[in-house]
Amino acid sequence: MHSEPLNDRNVSSNSTYYYVDIEEYPTQGWDKFKRVIKRTFKGELFVGLWVVLREMIKFDIHTVQYPKEKLPIGPRYRAVHKLLRLWESGYERCIGCGLCEKICISDCIRMDTKIDENSRKEVTEYSINLGRCIFCGYCAEVCPELAIVHGQRYENGSEQRAHFVIKDDMLTPLDLLTSGQQAEYPGFGSITPNESVKKTPLAY
Amino acid sequence: MDIAFIVETIVKIVVILLVFSALAGFGTYLERKVLAFMQRRLGPMHVGPFGLLQVAADGIKLFTKEDIIPQNVVKPIFKIAPVITAATAFMAAAAIPFWPEFTVFGYTVHPIVADINIGILYILGVMAIGLYGPLLGGMASANKFSLISAARSAAVFISYEVVSGLSLLAPLMMVGSLSLIDINNYQAGGIGSWIVWSQPVAFVLFWIAAFAETGRTPFHLIANDHEIIDGFGTEYSGMRWGLFFIGEYANMFFISFVIAIIFLGGYGDGTGLGVLGLLLKVAFFFFFFLWTRAAWPDVRPDQLMWLCWKVLMPLAVINVVITGFVMMF
After folding, report:
1. Test the B interface: residue of A40, A49, A52 with most B CBs within 10 Å
2. Which residue in B38, B42, B311 is closest to A63 by CB distance?
3. Does one domain contain both A9 and A89?
4. Is residue A158 part of a domain?
5. Residue A183 resides in a domain
6. Residue A30 belongs to what domain range?
């Protein structure tokens, strides 16, 4: 349906809008009496009774028993962040560029880097203060290496604020990586983990 | 009065108290389940299988809760009001025959605490005293919503006493007795002799009045959650509130028994089938209380009064007059 006829909100003969037909409120005693009779014998009360009984008999229960059952969430849902690893080597993908730290509009990402013994930049500390994070997704969007992504874990209750969030919780554990359980973000530029993913030869 | 009679009566009282206290608790479970199913929910599920032990959890919670007496309430009246509701509900049960008489070990048991010859009059009277629970509780609570609720409860109860009394008058004229056992025996001939066929108007009127007297949903104005919080129950907590609750649910069961016995033949000729029939009828009426709560909205207080005095009461009077004429000629 086109929205043009709906844009004219004046009630007229050529507009879609019309006044709801409301019956005149009875003023005479006789009219009131007639309304009572009509309402008494119209059977609307029994229609209501039938509707709820029908729903009870159909037993079409919509309850999700939450801790046991969970509704599926979208693949692009922005829940608690994850730090991913390289499929071919198991190294961390994060190169310590600091873009996510810069773009974070609630200023909740902090990272610390150093040059390790192989002259590679190593990320020593990486933390996202989830108490301040607004889950806007800019960090994941700006990351050139698809290292920081949003995960699907939305149950992040904890006893201590310090648990929100430490690097080890976000980083994919090595055993999950080797068993192929690291979930990839299916967006543009993402990799498909298969045999074609090979370790870059560094010995040149 | 011999010892056997006293012992028998005490045993019957204890049994009725225990059974109907438990049933009142179980009634809350049924209500939550039925309402949930009608609204496509599951209701209580976590305590016990299918949430069956939810009643126990609620009971433990109510019993162990702190007994709060708010400031500025009239303490003695505030404390006694829930007891009035619960006690009158159970007192009304004294004249209800729950079961046909039966024989164990050669001893005939009459499953009615007191077969007084003014049975139904006594039941209506005691249920009318039940008004004092909400009325006194609401007035003593030092709370505006409770006060509104108290005023409403007085208006509704007194008005609908008229309807229930007048509507019962016509069947009682036909039976010629106020004892529920006599009324039951009058209809012992089977389905064809039920009073509901000869007095359908009285049946509907009494049923409507029963909703007002138990304060169930179409007439749930006494404790109308969405406009006056919980009415007379606002300031109550713990087991004092629980007593109001037990009284309300016990009342629903007893009034279901009364409707089934007066209009739908009760336990009939007293065979096992008749007993089963009575239980099914009571179950239906109890279910109907829950059913209407899921289906119907509340009426306004002024509409409730209007319905009582301008529609139901004239109908009841006309019904009595017509019954009288039919019986005379």
Report:
1. A52
2. B42
3. no
4. yes
5. no
6. 4-58
Give B 37-56 residues with CB within 8 A of chain A: 37-42, 45
Closest CA–CA distance from residue A51 to any residue of chain B (Å): 8
DSSP codes, A135-162: ---HHHHH-TTS-EEE-S------S-GG
Average of per-residue pLDDT values in chain B? 86
How many A/B residue pairs have CB atoms within 8 Å? 37
pTM of the model: 0.78
Q: Which residues of B touch A65 (CB under 8 A)?
A: 42, 45
Alpha carbon of B164: minimum distance to chain A alpha carbons (Å): 20
Number of structural domains found in chain A = 2
Domain-embedded: residue A127: yes
Q: B298: how many CB neighbours lie within 10 A of its CB?
A: 17
- Which residue's entry shows tokens 């999950």? A176
- A39 shares a domain with A89: no
A99 and A149, same domain (yes or no):
yes
In angstroms, the CA A90 to CA A105 distance is 30
Q: What ipTM score was computed for the predicted complex, to two decimals?
A: 0.78
- pLDDT average, residue stretch A101-117: 89
Distance of CA B64 to the CA centre of its chain: 27
| A63 domain residue, yes or no | no
Shared domain check, A106 and A20: no
- B291 contacts A63? CB cut-off 8 A: no
Q: Coil, strand or helix: which one is B301? A: helix
Q: What pLDDT sits at residue B217?
A: 80
